[in-house]
Design goal:
- This protein is α+β, with helices and mostly antiparallel strands.
- It folds into two domains: 5-66 and 191-204, no CATH class; 71-184, Methyltransferase, Cobalt-precorrin-4 Transmethylase, Domain 2, CATH 3.30.950.
- The protein is 54% helix and 13% strand.
- The protein has nine helices and four strands.
- A four-stranded antiparallel β-sheet has the order 1-4-2-3, with helices on both faces.
- Strand 2 and strand 3 form a beta hairpin.
- Helix 3 crosses helix 7.
- The chain is elongated and about 75 Å long.
- The chain starts with a helix and ends with a helix.
- Bound molecules: zinc ion (ZN).
- Zinc ion is lined by residues 164, 168, 184, 188, 190-191.
Length: 207
């Protein structure tokens, strides 16, 4: 994984601050230009770990995008304003895609409120049935577009990783349910690296 010089720099700066707080007792002996050194607190450390993970996630995004492009076919369904009622959008997705893709049982979908604002990332191993069962959910009702990703191969096995990759790429507006972490650990490269960050940082900087 390549980190850009900017991301490397931000990462190193945070690690430097963590180290300073970890050594606060020692640094206190000589004092500092800005008064006493603050100690390393748990909440502050967790905040810094979040920032480190954010940097790692950012570095992985191009890699995830490439992986998704290579391994899936993406089909977008756009809803013309006023032409499709709010409670018919899920069936509109099914109806428009069923001729070509009706036989595909494994898919991941992303619904968007606008070009950039994702509402929901979800997966199905029962074709469009799963989408239909959520017809009344706000993330279909409020959608202006739904993108459906069909895996090219290893269909069932790659679904969790695909859902996870798309969650990194298009963070849903209401992030109430993280894709189950255990399943993804081995398959999603970004989550793997982010977990390594938190594990290592907590070992190096106990509070
Ligand atoms: Zn992930």
């Amino acid at each position: 994984m390549r980190f850009s010089p900017e991301l490397q720099k931000s990462f190193r700066e945070i690690v430097g601050k963590l180290g300073q707080r970890r050594a606060s007792k020692l640094l206190r002996i000589v004092g500092g230009p800005r008064g006493p050194q603050p100690e390393l607190g748990r909440r502050w450390r967790e905040k810094k770990i979040d920032e480190l993970q954010g940097i790692v996630e950012k570095a992985y995004l191009p890699h995830l995008k490439h992986w998704v492009d290579k391994n899936t076919r993406r089909v977008g369904v756009r809803f013309n304003r006023g032409r499709v009622s709010k409670d018919a959008k899920a069936s509109e997705v099914r109806d428009r895609l069923t001729k070509r893709w009706g036989g595909q049982r494994h898919l991941v979908y992303v619904s968007f409120a606008s070009a950039k604002r994702s509402l929901k990332v979800g997966r199905s191993d029962s074709g469009f049935g799963r989408i239909m069962s959520q017809q009344d959910a706000y993330y279909f009702r409020d959608a202006s577009r739904v993108d459906v990703y069909f895996p090219k191969r290893q269909k069932k096995r790659m679904l969790p990783a695909l859902e996870c990759a798309l969650t990194h790429l298009f963070p849903p507006y209401h992030y109430y349910q993280k894709p189950s972490a255990r399943k993804y650990r081995q398959t999603c490269a970004a989550c793997h690296a982010m977990k390594l960050v938190s594990k290592t940082a907590r070992e190096l900087y106990p509070t």
